Fold this protein.
Amino acid sequence: MRKVLFIGLFIMLVSCSESKQDFTNVFGTNIETMSTDYSYVDYLSFSGEGYSMASYSISDETLSTIINNIENSDFDLPKAEDKYSKKNWAKTPLAKKYSEVELLATSYSSDKEKLTNIQKKIKQLLNSNNNYHSFYYREVSENIIDIELFIIDVEEKKIYYVSHSV
């Protein structure tokens, strides 16, 4: 029985982690040229509660293609699940009405110094100009409680992904 539970948990964690194929529809281009710089996953329960974050480096060509798709087309995030809303691609800074998104993305407590530094970078990116962001979110009683956030750092040619579920 323990072996079955372990295998089930392993399959769940693997299926919950993001993959490059999952992001193709998010960015409107094949992003096989991405390389993972950092990844952190902490799921607290079988219901999907937890926090995950990853950062990726992308090539000049991929960055250019993504920005072109965002700025010159009607490219949007894929349709969200019924309980989620979506905020399509926009330039930073993040609108003040979505301050809870920033809070969820950057306030997860960890003793991992690298994670804390990347959270600071994400906060800085969301409050600066000329980067891009998009996200899915779920609200309960007018409070945002779950997010899947995508950020494009134009200067450093990076993509950040944050998922925080309560």
Observations:
- The beta strands are 35-43, 50-57, 85-91, 132-140, 143-153, 158-165.
- The first strand starts at residue 35 and ends at 43.
- The radius of gyration is 16 Å.
- The chain has one domain: 18-165.
